[in-house]
Amino acid sequence: MKIYMIQNGQIKSSKQLIDKDLLKRLFYSLKYEQDKTMIQIATEYELAIEQLEEINQGQIYRVNWQTYPVRNKGVHNPLTKHLVEIRDLLKNTNISQKDIARKFNISVSSVMAINNGKYCHNNKLSYPLRDNYQCCGNERTALSPKEVREIEEKLKNTNISMRSIATEYEIPLTTVLNLNTSQRIIKLSIAETLTCIDYPRIEE
User: Fold this and answer.
1) Most buried of 44, 75, 134, 194, CB within 10 angstroms?
2) How far, in Å, CA of 139 to CA of 126, rounded?
3) Per-residue pLDDT tens digits for 89-133
4) What confidence tens digit (pLDDT) does each residue in 133-180 have?
5) Cα 82 vs. chain centroid, distance in angstroms?
6) Which helix (DSSP H) or strand (DSSP E) does residue 195 occupy?
7) For the residues of 25-94, what is the DSSP string, one character each?
C-alpha cells in the first residue's frame, strides 16, 4: 500500500509515520461510524482535531485507494432517526449487530450499547434487548483502539471466555487468541515509561 504525506505542496512518503492498519480503522470510523463526531473520533485515536481534519481531506497520510473527503460535512447522527428501528431489529430479528451497524452507518459499539441499555435507556424495556446473542455470518474485520483496550482488560481482569468475547465483539476467535498471546505495550505514565501486560491467559 502506498501512503503519502503532503506538506507545503510536496508529496513525501509516510509509510513509517503511521501504522497502516490503524489508518484503515480510522478511515472506517470516518466513513461508516457516523454516530461518532469528529471530536469523538479524534479523542479515540489520540489525534488533534486539526490533524484528523487534514487526514479526512487527504492533506496528510493520503492513500491512493481512498476517496476524499472521507466524511462529508453536514453528516447527521443516524441514531436520532433510526433508534426505534434499531431496537426493533435487536428484539425481533437475528440480524447480526455488525449488519445492523452497517445498515445505519453507526458503530458496532453503539449497537451493543443500545442492546444493553447503556445508550438511550428506556425504562419500559427489558435489557439486554437480545438475549444469548450469537454471531452469524461474517465477522467484523476491524477493531477500534478503544475496543482493543476493552478486550485486553477483559482478558487480563475477568474470567469471561475468549469465545464469549469473540461473540460479543463479532470477531473471529483467532483475533481474541492473537490479542491474548501477544505482548501488548501500554503507557504507564506521562513520562511514557513502558511495560508489558503480564498475560497470555491460559484458558482451560
Assistant:
1) 44
2) 27
3) 999 998 888 889 999 999 888 898 899 898 889 999 999 898 644
4) 444 444 554 677 788 888 989 998 998 888 888 878 877 777 888 888
5) 20
6) strand 194-196
7) HHHHHHHH-TTS-HHHHHHHTT--HHHHHHHHHTSSSEETT--SSSS-TT---THHHHHHHHHHHHHH--
Lookup result for grid cell 482535531: 49
Stretch 42-52: mean pLDDT = 90
The Cα 201–Cα 113 span in angstroms is 27
Report angle CA 26, 144, 162 to the nearest 5 degrees: 155
Contacts 24+ apart (CB under 8 A), 61-64: 61/3, 61/4, 61/5, 61/14, 61/17, 61/18, 61/23, 62/3, 62/4, 62/5, 62/6, 62/11, 63/1, 63/2, 63/3, 63/4, 63/23, 64/2, 64/4
Secondary structure of residue 154 in the 3-state scheme: helix
CB 73 within 8 A of CB 114: no
Rounded distance between C-alpha atoms, residue 75 and residue 35, angstroms: 9
- The mean pLDDT of the chain is 78
